Every structure is written in C-alpha cells, then in structure tokens.
Amino acid sequence: MKTRAGIAVCLALWAGLAFAQAYPSKPVRVIVPYPSGGIVDLLARAVTEKIAAGWGQPILVEGRPGADSNLGTEAAAKSAPDGYTWLMTGPAILSNPSIYTGLGWVPLKDFQGVGVAVWNLNVAVIPASLPVGTLQEFVAYAKARPGQLNFGNPGTGSSNHLSTELFFQVAGIQLVNIGYKGQPPAIPDLINGQLQFKVVALGLAAPHIKSGRLKALAAFSPQRLKQLPEVPTVAEAGYPEAGLVPWYGMYVPAATPKDIVSRINGEINKALQSPEVQERIEKIGGLPGPVKTPDEIQAMMKSDFERWGKVVRAANIKPAQ
Q: Where, residue-wise, is CATH 3.40.190.150 in the chain?
C-alpha cells in the first residue's frame, strides 16, 4: 500500500510539473473591468505584450466594464483556475466589498495576487483661478467655506475617489461629491471652476498643469514625480497619513496551481524590470510596480483591504445610483 501511495504521489507531482512546463499552451486572457482604451487597459497591455513576446503565445486584453468594475471582477473570479484567465484591476477589488452587498467574490478568498503591475500616480489639482498655492492653504480655504466647494468623483470606490476621501478624513474637511463617468469628463469643469478640487491621474493632469490651466498641490506618490519634480508629495505637503498610494495588481483565481502562480509572477516581475515596459508605464502616468512574491502581494491585499474598508466606512460611501 505504501508503494502504491508513493507512486500516486510521484505521479501527481510529475503531472503538476509537466503542466507547469507546458504552460502556456494556448492564448491567455486578461480581464480589465474598465473600458477599453482607458488607463488600466493601457497599463495591462504594456506589461502583457512584453510577456507574450517571450512566450510566443498571445495574451489578449479584454475590457469588461460595468457596475464599478464588479462585473469583470466576478467573471475573473468564476473563471477556470488554470492560469489562462488573469484580472488586472485597481483598489476597487479591495474596497468594493465594503461598499456593495451580494458580490459574487471575496478578494482574499477568491483571488491570488501574481503581480503589482504599477503604482497608480495621482495628483491633487485645483483650478488656476483658485486663490491658494499649497495643499495646506487649500485646506484652510475649504474649512472657511463648508458645503461650498465641489470635488469631482470619477467613480465610486475608484482609486481617485478613495485617495480623495482618505485625504479629506486626514485633513478634516468635506466637499460636495460630484459624480462623473470616468476622469476625462470632469477635467473641463475643473478648469472652468465648477469643481474646486480633484485627484486626477498623472497622465491626464500633467498637460493641463504644464499649460497653467490647473494648479498641482500634491502628488499621491511614494516620491516626487519625474514629470512634475516641483510638486511635493502629499506627505511632504503636510499630510503623511493621506499618502497611501493605490496600486494596480494582476490576479488569478485562488485555486490556480502554485507552479503556475509562480511562473506568472516571475514573468510579470521580469517584464516590469524591462526599460521598455518602464518607459511605457511612465508615459501613461504610472510608476512600475516593485518585485513582489505572491505571498507578499497577499499581505499587501490584506493590509489594503482593511485600510480601504476603514476609509469607506468613515466616509459612508454608498453604491452609485
């Protein structure tokens, strides 16, 4: 019996090894739960195109937007755990369970992180006409005008929304939440002064900052931005507790074999160290993610799940109507 058991174990190990060595033997699908052509879509392509070139197998990026990213995320959670369906998304995967009920997935149970693709660099901006020049001056300006200032929200639970709410909680201010379908539609209203504050993706904000139509008060980034070196980080501007930088991660279903998880993780980390990929990510307005193991990514997920949940509850964020 022991011999048979030993043979069975060896066969299982051999089968798993053979599967890992054969992977990938067909195209891989990456679900992006946001519109095609958006920032997450572009970032996903920057990373996966490099991996696909080395593999000789296509990696197809598929936009599955809807329900504040919940539709695409659920589709990925329910996909076969064979390494052929990945998900790339932002902090919504960790914050949405605190906002919505009845989701078809639980992040820490249903997903395994395989890569920190990029830090999502955002900039706090105001109209050029607003008579303040620093983040602390803006806070004083807002405290003197309760209920009179508006901020643009590109999506409930988005990285921009969460970063904004965290900053408001730390700074002790409240602004009126004006909802938009994405970031671009809010930019004209910000420039003309209908909005007085917005946290905007670096790639969208930089041209308007450089043209003088918007003022940058702080960068939500681990260090000063190469594109805007004169702009302080939110920590340097006086609010270090608001400096939690959102990140976009790559995920697979939790039951995916560990050998496959390790293979994907290694390929993502290798791609992120490529100068070509780093340049593409920086042009889009991100910062290439650090090399992280699957266990380290799970620890990041747990920490941010708890942190963003506190932000959601403190701000009483509800599902968009």
A: 26-119+245-315
Could you name the CATH architecture of 26-119+245-315? 3-Layer(aba) Sandwich (3.40)
233: which strand partners? 219
pLDDT digits (tens, 9 = 90+) for 14-65: 444 444 568 999 999 999 998 888 889 999 999 999 999 999 999 999 999 9
Which pair of structure tokens corresponds to residue 262?
A: 């390790």
The one-letter amino acid at 89: T
Sign of the C-alpha dihedral computed for residues 183, 187, 188 and 189 taken in this order: positive
Residue where the block lists tokens 């004006």: 178
Cα gap 93→105, rounded to integer Å: 9
| Phi, psi (degrees; rounded to nearest 5) at 167 | -60, -45
